[in-house]
Amino acid sequence: MSEMNCPKGHGAMVEKKVEKSVPFKGITVKVIEDAFVCPVCGLSAGTVQSAGKVQNALSEAYRQQVGLLSGEDLRRLRKGKGMTQADLAEAMGVGVASIKRWETGSIQTKSMDQALRQHLMTNAIESHVNGNRDISIPRILLVLTAFESALKRSILKENDKMLFAGKYLFYADMMAKKRLGRSMTGAAYARLPFGPQLNNYNDLLDEIRKADIFEAEALTDQELEIIDQIAKTFPKDRMVYDASHKEPAWLETKTGAPVLYTWADRLVAKID
Ligand SMILES: [Zn+2]
């Protein structure tokens, strides 16, 4: 950046970021502009910026203010998903030039913004891994507590590795995903040699025991019904264990790999 002297003869001006309010598309947009300011008289002058750069700064600030994804957001989210501009264009059915323009200052329409969010912010993989819900440790404990009440016995035992509790949970989450479109706990499962199990159960065990069930969203009647039916179908630990080993979800998943909720519609245990 070149230097600039105060036109009033106070010597060198200092480069600073200055907030400016600019009318733009019917609203007042606050933009941060690089400017030279005279420390003596306070006179400020914009630095010589390309018209494109100014336009881009205005567009970024405008989009942020009206709740649209900014070009910077778009680039960051797209890269976070490992997509090229061409990948995103193809997924959205738009030309790659549109993606390029939005990332460098063009303002997308509200409906395009929603489509962009759908492609960049909803995570299809996670919905398969967590069953359309963020994992809730208190809710895991709540569901286990509901099972204990339905089974009239304890399933979360001292020094237990959740060998059986994990399978009751698995059925509860899978059935909820199948019937209600959403898992109960958001837990992810993995295919272990001894059945489907909470992913990272070793790390979660302690947290589950210490969780506060009152922090969990209460169970709905439909969820309680599912828990009840599972408890009636598998009154004994061994039964839920054996059933889980007959599920295609377990049989057809590689050891160590996530057991995806896409299997929910293919459960073979008869629970009703
Ligand atoms: Zn001056």
Stretches where pLDDT falls below 50 for ≥5 residues? Answer: none
What's the helix count? 12
- From the spread of the alpha carbons, the general shape counts as elongated
Helical content class: 40-55%
Largest sheet: 3 strands, antiparallel
β content, as a range?
5-15%
Keywords:
single chain; about 270 residues; alpha+beta; 434 Repressor (Amino-terminal Domain); three-stranded antiparallel sheet; 6 strands; about 15% strand; elongated; binds zinc ion
What do you see in this structure?
- This protein is an alpha+beta fold and 272 residues long.
- The chain has three domains: 53 residues, no CATH class; 52 residues, 434 Repressor (Amino-terminal Domain), CATH 1.10.260; 140 residues, no CATH class.
- It has twelve helices and six strands.
- The protein is elongated, with a radius of gyration of 28 Å.
- The protein starts with 13 loop residues before the first strand and ends in a 13-residue tail after the last strand.
- The mean pLDDT is 90.
- The structure holds zinc ion (ZN).
- The site of zinc ion has 7 residues, from loops.
List the helices and strands and how they pair.
Layout: E1 14-24, E2 27-37, E3 44-46, H1 51-66, H2 71-80, H3 85-92, H4 96-103, H5 110-121, H6 124-130, H7 137-151, H8 165-180, E4 189-192, E5 195-198, H9 201-210, H10 221-233, H11 237-244, H12 248-251, E6 258-259
Antiparallel strand pairs: 1-2, 2-3, 4-5, 4-6
Bound molecules: zinc ion.
Zinc ion (ZN) binds at residues 6, 8, 10, 38, 40-41, 43.
